[in-house]
Design goal:
Strand order of the largest sheet of chain B: 2-1-6
Largest sheet of chain A: 8 strands, mixed
Strand order of the largest sheet of chain A: 1-5-4-6-3-7-8-9
Largest sheet of chain B: 3 strands, mixed
Number of helices of chain B: 2
Oligomer: heterodimer
CATH topology of chain B: hypothetical protein PF0899 fold
Order of helices and strands of chain A: EEHEHEHEHEEHHEHEH
Number of strands of chain A: 9
Order of helices and strands of chain B: HEHEEEEE
Shape of chain A: globular
CATH class of chain A: Alpha Beta
Helix content of chain B: 25-40%
Largest interface: A-B, 44 and 43 residues
Distance between the termini of chain A: 41 Å
Helix content of chain A: 25-40%
CATH superfamily of chain A: P-loop containing nucleotide triphosphate hydrolases
Strand content of chain A: 15-25%
Chain lengths: 259, 113
């Protein structure tokens, strides 16, 4: 069963450790409810009252305990496709090389293009190709972290599948959820995808170098963000020019110090 | 469209509970979906038909109860149902209200035979 629209056959997700340096290597990796009463005939009413995210949430909690025990800070990044998740991670790894050890889990429906791109930074990178699944879930993360030496990491960045809808529901066990919106997307993204933004610990406006060309109305965007996510930290940056990267760096530093 | 994933979990959990209750068929499956949960009712209903084929729940009545969003504004101790996606307190205009209900994604109950 296709997890996206219900058509066709299931394709499982795959997890691949991407080797550093080479851009050509291709690694093949790999409640209870009880019946209470009986009404007519043998029709039985069975109360259940189980959250459909219960299993995911339990695995996420187990991930979180594991990250805490290993002293790894985990930040997930979500956005629509093309908002600049990979570019931000790439720039972050590049700028912070030598200051702390970071690893990356990259989620995509298909291809390991992003993971290969990130592996050039020498950071350990694991690609999850979800097949037809539109989001990462806690179980995928639990499997992916087996490919890392968590003792050697300070920070783990999880790049979710480009999608502003489905990933919102799934706790991965991360410490902080970061949602990106680029200046080319329209100022009202937070109002159109409120669930995702409401759950964000930080909202990052990306591609600020293109703001003028995109006729980006900064005040309108900030007003939307403030109304949907009043408590989220707000960062504006350009991964291309480096403008605003110090705020992002500060945000990560605060989290690393807190652990 | 994560409704198919959620529905697959719902059927898995439902079959487990139906078996525990000594049932062989699920006749009615009731779910509760919060208005602010991000789950789309129509997508869930579509997913139900697709996912239940060949399961104990095939042909069952699928009953979706939508739970309205209820917020609490701690600034003015006011409970309210937000008028839009913004959780704006109608009394003080604050956007920082807590969500008391409306995030549910729950398998509520079954009728089994």
């Amino acid at each position: 069963m296709c997890q996206t629209c219900g058509c066709g056959a299931v394709e499982g997700y795959a997890i691949d450790r991407i080797p550093a340096v080479s851009a050509s290597a291709d690694d093949e990796g790999a409640a209870p409810g009880t019946p209470t009463h009986t009404h007519d005939h043998d029709h039985r009413h069975v109360p259940v009252h189980v959250s459909l995210l219960d299993k995911n949430d339990r695995i996420a909690e187990s991930n979180r305990r594991r990250f805490e025990a290993k002293g790894v800070v985990v930040v997930s990044i979500a956005s629509s496709p093309g908002a600049g998740k990979t570019a931000l991670i790439e720039r972050t790894l590049h700028d912070m090389a030598g200051t702390f050890e970071a690893g990356v889990i990259v989620g995509d429906l298909a291809t390991d293009n992003d993971a290969r791109r990130l592996a050039r930074t020498q950071a350990p990178v694991v690609q999850i190709t979800t097949g037809t699944v539109c989001h990462l879930d806690a179980d995928m993360i639990a499997n992916a972290i087996k490919r890392f030496d968590l003792d050697a990491l300070d920070l783990l960045i999880v790049e979710n599948v480009g999608n502003l809808v489905c990933p919102a529901a799934y706790d991965l066990g991360e410490d902080a959820r970061v949602v990106l919106m680029s200046v080319t997307e329209g100022e009202d993204k937070p109002a159109k995808y409120p669930t995702m933004f409401q759950r964000a610990d930080a909202v990052v406006i990306t591609k600020t170098d293109m703001a003028e060309a995109a006729h980006f109305d900064r005040d309108a965007a900030l007003a939307y963000i403030r109304r949907v996510a009043p408590d989220a930290e707000l960062i504006e940056l350009s991964s291309l020019t480096g403008e605003g990267m110090e705020s992002w760096r500060h945000y990560l530093d605060q989290r690393l110090k807190a652990r | 469209m994560h409704e198919v994933s959620l529905m697959a979990t719902a059927v898995e959990v439902a079959e487990m509970h139906a078996r525990e209750a000594g049932g062989t068929r699920i006749r009615v499956m009731r779910v509760r979906i919060g208005a602010a949960s991000g789950v789309v009712r129509e997508a869930l209903e579509f997913a139900f038909d697709a996912v239940t084929v060949g399961t104990m729940a095939e042909g069952a009545v699928f009953d979706v109860q939508v739970v309205p969003t209820l917020c609490y504004c701690s600034d003015c101790s006011e409970e309210f149902t937000p008028a839009s996606v913004f959780r704006e307190c109608p009394t003080c205009g604050s956007f920082t209200a807590d969500v008391l209900q409306g995030m549910e994604i729950e398998l509520a109950s079954l009728e089994v035979t």
